[in-house]
Amino acid sequence: MLSAETEVRVRYAETDAMGIVHHGSYIPWLEVGRIHLLDTLGLPYSEMEKQGYRLPVLRVSLQYRSPAHFDERVRVMAKLETLPAVRFQIHYLLQRGESLLADGFTEHAFVGSDGYPIRPPAHFRERIKALWPKLK
Amino acid sequence: MLSAETEVRVRYAETDAMGIVHHGSYIPWLEVGRIHLLDTLGLPYSEMEKQGYRLPVLRVSLQYRSPAHFDERVRVMAKLETLPAVRFQIHYLLQRGESLLADGFTEHAFVGSDGYPIRPPAHFRERIKALWPKLK
Amino acid sequence: MLSAETEVRVRYAETDAMGIVHHGSYIPWLEVGRIHLLDTLGLPYSEMEKQGYRLPVLRVSLQYRSPAHFDERVRVMAKLETLPAVRFQIHYLLQRGESLLADGFTEHAFVGSDGYPIRPPAHFRERIKALWPKLK
Amino acid sequence: MLSAETEVRVRYAETDAMGIVHHGSYIPWLEVGRIHLLDTLGLPYSEMEKQGYRLPVLRVSLQYRSPAHFDERVRVMAKLETLPAVRFQIHYLLQRGESLLADGFTEHAFVGSDGYPIRPPAHFRERIKALWPKLK
Fold it and tell me: pTM, whole model, 2 decimals?
């Protein structure tokens, strides 16, 4: 497993008329966590885009356990639980202090310049393998 | 099954730098479809809120099949596949013409004035039962 | 003056913890009104993009007069008050029934394939002139 | 003048199909800068809300000078240029390195529990006066 944790501070724009964070506002937070995970792995997404790869989201699944509110700090942990194949998942835990706010996953596939799904680029696979705990 | 269909027109603000609609932008569209379904059932959400009930989202699960683009019209079909219990799901199909763009579900529970999950209000249950095809 | 009016229905995602529409949510509504105005003039923005022109926003100025709420219908009127030069403004009136909710303008310039501001394309200028009331 | 500076990192969700940050995405960044300014002054907005005050936005005016892109760091400087009266403005400078990306202001008034504009609360005025450079 490879994981990384970052933090977001809840923006007023992310709340809704229930007085809590709108469920849709969590989706960009998952992205923040995912981008941070890729940074931590030495595979920044902006670099991959420059090399012609994209990593669109094929699926989102998120369970909301406890509401978040304006100005709270939310820790976003993103993790790779298995070595990425053509399709792979990134899992998330969102917490405020010890409270679990939400957990779930996104599913991804790399897409090449022709717009079709491809295997993860060699550079990406090698880097992940090099960092993977069990394979070290 | 009870269902309703409405349409959204893609806003430029809903696209991202991949040139397609950002995956997070679909979440408010599910909401548009859900609100429209409740309207169609004679159970407008704004009325339920006035009566002290809220219907937060407990889970989102969405699969992205084909990208949407600026200015396209996307049909959003929302449907109740089973009679709502304490927790219940609303399913969605998003289509452009005959193309399936995305499908998935949201999970909900009614919450009362004390913030705790409750059974769907009597008015809601009776209305759904009265409209339910098999029970007519 | 050339103008067009369309309507948006307030999404829950557009509200905030004050129980009203977040001020940032109006910006995409201006865009909806602007896109509709261009449609009405026979100059759909998606066509202009295909021809290699873009029309970025150089300035936004908006005054909030009265709050909007979930599920309300907001009429968005967009208008061209002067013949477009290199820089030009589109003005907006946002109303719910007879109530003025907000008014303001956006400023724009066409940008060509090299990314630099250019005069409005000939097709655009001729179309606007042909429709302009005083010049008919 | 009282000012404070913070930084946002551009989210993919904040970009649009032009490949740059959507103009509407800057509005929550102004909010991030404003909230940070109030924190710095010892007047956190979440505290003011708990005391029954709200500080809605009455006007937004923003000029876009140069586009921002995914993953860039944008510094947001918010400043009070005059002592707040019933209506007051907060000014903003958004920069990436030495490049000016945008500048503008928001206008605000405190609103009390009855929803009507009021003078800034005594605590707020005293705190600002105590910190104001010329009045020290």
Answer: 0.96
Confidence band of C115 (pLDDT split at 50, 70, 90): confident
Q: Is A67 an interface residue toward B (CB < 8 Å)? A: yes
pLDDT at D113: 76
Instruction: Mark yes or no for CB contact D27/C23 under 8 Å.
Output: yes
If you search the block for the tokens 């969590």, which residue do you land on?
A26
Q: Do C56 and D64 touch (CB under 8 A)?
A: yes
CB contacts, 8 Å: C63 with chain D = 58-59
pLDDT tens profile D12-32: 999 999 999 999 999 999 999
DSSP-derived letter for residue C85 is -
What is the overall mean pLDDT for chain B?
95
Residue pair C22/C28 in contact by the 8 Å Cβ criterion: no
Could you give the count of Cα atoms lying within 13 Å of A54 in the half-sphere of its Cβ?
Answer: 16
Q: Can you list the pairs that A51-54 forms with residues at least 24 positions away whose Cβ atoms lie under 8 Å?
A: A51/A121, A52/A112, A52/A113, A53/A110, A53/A111, A53/A112, A53/A118, A53/A121, A53/A124, A54/A110, A54/A111, A54/B18
